[in-house]
């Protein structure tokens, strides 16, 4: 594994300062996530990112905070927004109705043509869903390159869009369009799905044309090198160091 900029400092911070249950807290703002709350990171979260093992929602939320700042600098906040993964995941996020209503309410904040990035955890696996609620188009990205085949997640997202349409008094499409992004780089082992969806989000927001669909829709031989993955880890590490431990 290559050296990550900020990595040694990050590991030292976790080892020396986060013993005895100490945490790093940061705020999730409603305008970024659709909910206003505090999020906490533990020593185990930092260790997981350093070792590229299974990531928590807190790690992904912190990276979203960083990405939102990138969007603001690029004057693209009106083009891309996010959804708090803790409100939509398969476990611990309430029943199906609660989750889809949260999504519907989140979509009501959409500006014209804005897309929403939804990191979704199916229980032990991260996937990324991108929703354009105005166009009623959904882009599905599973780092294992599997297609979405019905199920609860499809119900949650589609009904979230339908409620959003009802709130806006419009009929909407007869059937909502799902597009499988079969050309995304596939994860390399069973536990790095979280870092891969972070990299997908990075690429999406760094493209001012938001042309991810044309790039990833068809099967391809695209891969992420260790350098590609380490770029995400370095960004996360540098951003994390601005927060205080309590």
UniProtKB/TrEMBL annotation:
PROSITE patterns: ULP_PROTEASE (PS50600). Residues 39-204 form the Ubiquitin-like protease family profile domain. It holds the Pfam family Peptidase_C48. Keywords: Hydrolase, Protease. GO terms for biological process: proteolysis. Belongs to the peptidase C48 family. InterPro entries: Papain-like_cys_pep_sf, Peptidase_C48_C. This is Putative Ulp1 protease family catalytic domain-containing protein. One of its GO terms (molecular function) is cysteine-type peptidase activity. SUPFAM superfamilies: Cysteine proteinases.
């Amino acid at each position: 594994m290559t050296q990550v900029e900020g990595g040694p400092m990050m590991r030292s911070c976790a080892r020396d300062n986060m013993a005895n249950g100490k945490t790093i807290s940061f705020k999730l703002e409603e305008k970024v996530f659709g909910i206003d709350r505090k999020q906490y990171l533990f020593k185990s979260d930092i260790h997981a990112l350093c070792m590229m093992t299974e990531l928590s929602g807190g790690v992904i939320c912190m990276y979203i905070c960083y990405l939102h700042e990138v969007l603001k600098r690029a004057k693209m906040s009106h083009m891309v927004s996010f959804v708090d993964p803790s409100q939509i995941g398969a476990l611990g996020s309430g029943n199906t109705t609660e989750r889809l209503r949260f999504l519907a309410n989140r979509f009501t904040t959409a500006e014209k043509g804005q897309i929403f990035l939804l990191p979704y955890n199916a229980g032990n696996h991260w996937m990324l869903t991108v929703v354009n609620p105005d166009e009623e188009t959904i882009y599905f990205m599973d780092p294992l390159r599997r297609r979405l085949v019905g199920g609860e997640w499809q119900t949650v997202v589609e009904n979230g869009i339908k409620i959003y349409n009802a709130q806006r008094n419009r009929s909407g499409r007869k059937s909502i369009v799902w597009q499988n992004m079969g050309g995304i780089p596939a994860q390399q082992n069973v536990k790095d799905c979280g870092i891969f969806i972070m990299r997908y989000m990075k690429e999406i927001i760094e493209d001012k044309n938001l042309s991810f669909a044309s790039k990833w829709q068809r099967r391809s031989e695209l891969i992420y090198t260790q350098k590609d993955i380490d770029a995400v880890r370095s960004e996360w590490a540098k951003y994390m160091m601005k927060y205080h431990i309590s």
